[in-house]
Amino acid sequence: MLQIAVTGKPNVGKSSFFNSATSSSVEMANYPFTTIDANKAVAHVISECPCKELNVTCNPRNSICIDGKRLLPVELIDVAGLVPGAHEGKGLGNQFLDDLMQAKVLIHVIDASGSTDAEGQSVEAGSHDPLDDIEFLEDEIVMWMYGILNRNWVRLVRKIEAEKLDIAKVIFDQLSGTGITLEDIIEAKRKVNPDYTKWEKEDFMELIRNILHIAKPMLIVANKADLPTAEENIKRMQEKYPYVIPASAESEIALVKAAEAGLISYTPGDSDFEILEKDKLSDNQLKALEYIKVNILEKYGGTGIQTALNEAIFGLLNMIVVYPVQDEHKYTDQKGNVLPDGILVPKGAVPKELAYLVHSDIGDNFMHAVDARKNMRIAADYELQDKDVISIVTRG
Ligand SMILES: Nc1nc2c(ncn2[C@@H]2O[C@H](COP(=O)(O)OP(=O)(O)OP(=O)(O)O)[C@@H](O)[C@H]2O)c(=O)[nH]1
């Protein structure tokens, strides 16, 4: 399952974000996996299910369909321990960085209201500039990777020369376990001085930043957007960085709780709610709900939690959803389940890559694929499209 790391300095609302993003999956009946371990749980991203358009009733297996919306599971990892000096082993140090590197995409939770200082201590709202926190995470990761690469560099350069090794492959081996691919390194290296024997600290830093931007894209969640000091900071963040999602984890938690109690009707991701039991709500509760409506839902179009997850997968990672089936006429698997699985694949993937994502045996025995909508065989280099329904034909 695709992994998303949720991180940020202490007190910014990481746990609140993590809990609000994963609690709704827990409620879902027949969900095969909920809490994986203490700091991992399943959340979901939402995509339009092809069932409506194909006029069929689907029987999802790896996902859930609610009113034509397909909820696809992703794994969230709660990575606590970001403190200044983490790369030198402060706080949870390298454990923090190892955990972070498991994920394909990072969600960096920021206290947009500026009420926590650089170390995560509470301060007067608006007195800390949250823009300073954005650079700080990347700096910690860069310094940590620099430490790894720099450690044996002189010896490695000699070895590269003596044994005529490929520099990108050598860097790749040094960074093993970080999920960074050889292709990522080759691409990142193009923009730095080609003569690696002359690399200074700045060249390493540039290379590492390039690698990070390619291999570990980062989404900024501007949390605590409900506080009055957040608005101006959010504007400044959005002007400077491409992926900033205003959010209020606390509002999401409040709305989900009220919905669970039957007081309002609200589904995560909605941009509005409806009060069902006005008489059972106290004046304070009504005021709080009104505050959320005006200051979060109407202002930002939602609490930002579901938007952030969707943006991480479909925006930053550029994924699409493809539906493999066995019977291209009925859109079913072997057992007759209609549109059983939605699979997240990177945009640009071809049918054989989909086959491997379904199962390695199916990949090994892949012959060709059929576009079930058009009932037509597709070419080996056909780029899969979002919501494609594909039947894979295998040998034997
Ligand atoms: N106003 C407001 N407060 C929030 C929001 N999200 C979290 N908080 C508050 O911020 C404080 C920290 O929240 P946590 O979720 O524990 O933060 P954390 O980043 O996990 O903190 P650590 O466990 O210390 O790393 C708590 O008092 C929350 O109630 C939000 O969206 N709005």
UniProtKB/TrEMBL annotation:
<dbReference type="GO" id="GO:0016887">
    <property type="term" value="F:ATP hydrolysis activity"/>
</dbReference>
<dbReference type="InterPro" id="IPR013646">
    <property type="entry name" value="YGR210-like_G4"/>
</dbReference>
<comment type="similarity">
    <text>Belongs to the RelA/SpoT family.</text>
</comment>
<dbReference type="GO" id="GO:0005737">
    <property type="term" value="C:cytoplasm"/>
</dbReference>
<dbReference type="Pfam" id="PF01926">
    <property type="entry name" value="MMR_HSR1"/>
</dbReference>
<dbReference type="InterPro" id="IPR012675">
    <property type="entry name" value="Beta-grasp_dom_sf"/>
</dbReference>
<protein>
    <recommendedName>
        <fullName>OBG-type G domain-containing protein</fullName>
    </recommendedName>
</protein>
<dbReference type="GO" id="GO:0005525">
    <property type="term" value="F:GTP binding"/>
</dbReference>
<keyword id="KW-0547">Nucleotide-binding</keyword>
<feature type="domain" description="OBG-type G">
    <location>
        <begin position="2"/>
        <end position="265"/>
    </location>
</feature>
<dbReference type="InterPro" id="IPR031167">
    <property type="entry name" value="G_OBG"/>
</dbReference>
<dbReference type="InterPro" id="IPR004095">
    <property type="entry name" value="TGS"/>
</dbReference>
<dbReference type="InterPro" id="IPR012676">
    <property type="entry name" value="TGS-like"/>
</dbReference>
<dbReference type="InterPro" id="IPR027417">
    <property type="entry name" value="P-loop_NTPase"/>
</dbReference>
<dbReference type="Pfam" id="PF08438">
    <property type="entry name" value="YGR210-like_G4"/>
</dbReference>
<dbReference type="Pfam" id="PF02824">
    <property type="entry name" value="TGS"/>
</dbReference>
<dbReference type="InterPro" id="IPR006073">
    <property type="entry name" value="GTP-bd"/>
</dbReference>
